Amino acid sequence: MMFRSSRLLPLVLALVLPGGASFAQSREGETATTAETQQVEAANDATLRAFGAFQRGYYLTAMELAVPRAQLGDPAAQTLVAELFASGLGVARDMDSAAFWYKQAAEGGDASAQFKYGLMLLEGRYVEADEDKAGELMKKAADAGNAFAQFNHAQFLVSQKPGDAGIFEALPYFEKAAEQGVADAQYALAQIYHNTDGVSDAKRAKARELMEKAARAGYDTAQLDYAIWLIDGVGGPKDYEAGFHWMEVAATRGNVVAQNRMAVLHINAIGTKGDPVEAGKWYILSRRAGYDDRTLDDFYQGLTEDEQKQSLEAANKFGKQ
């Protein structure tokens, strides 16, 4: 280990630097560099204070702090200004101004702005549609680690290349987004791992775990499919009670297919003791939502008048919740 004594420091400082410059000359440059560093730190601090005010709900203060930095070209501050305009926080909602600042920040390399502005370009809302530019920005944001951009870019790749080729090209982006907790990506990845030929056994074994994560994140389609997988034993052992639980969660959240399946589960006493009134309730709710099932029509007609009345009352009570 090299030990540098503070006592020897003046001797070191007196040395002539390469190129003939004396240390005294270099100190002037160092002082200038230090001043520049302090300016950068002060600027960064201003941006951080703007974000801090935003997080505490002081939106007008956040805008006042962020605008000067945004005007000087700070991409993070530009994104914050865009968010404030887009959400109407501290200022009147102004999507034209939001688009302007998202564009500036995207060109400055801010991944969040690249994602947001990319969506605007893709949808042609508030800006002229430009699918090529949208795809370019979405990929940049995805490669920079933006989770939602990774998911959207993966979807774009699949849409551009139907079949397994597109799926495998998109797979790394789906995986990165899923790792960052994007429920839609976890759901998509579960389906890909389970249904795509050529996926390794190790990945295929993770399909149900990913479906569960998406379900626990509140994605109702994942809750429905996870329930079905548990009941049918897809990707693991059968678990009727857990399957019934997740079907009920999805149905309660308003998933129409899950409401229809809840009626079936009650009729057949799968994961539950079964209850004709509860079955009737879920049938009515799914039917009101437009789900046509003639088998359940026949079941409901077979209920007693009292059971139909109770089912209707239960459905109406659920609808008021």
Could you give a short description of this structure?
The protein is mainly alpha-helical and 321 residues long.
Features:
321 residues, mainly alpha, 18 helices, 74% helix, 0% strand, globular, disordered N terminus
SSE blueprint and pairings:
Blueprint lengths: L8 H5 L9 H33 L3 H13 L3 H13 L7 H13 L3 H13 L7 H13 L3 H14 L3 H16 L3 H13 L5 H4 L2 H10 L3 H13 L7 H13 L3 H13 L7 H13 L5 H8 L3 H16 L1
Description:
With 321 residues, the chain is an all-alpha fold. Helix content is 74%, strand content 0%. It is built from 18 helices and no strands. α8 runs antiparallel to α9 (164-179).
Looking at the structure, what is the overall shape? globular
Strand content: under 5%
Mean pLDDT: 88
Number of strands: 0
Question: Helix proportion of residues, in percent?
Answer: over 70%
Low-confidence stretches: 1-33
* Main beta sheet strand tally, sense and closure: none
Count up the helices: 18
Find the structural class using helix and strand composition. mainly alpha
C-alpha-based Rg, rounded: 29 Å
Distance linking N and C termini: 71 Å
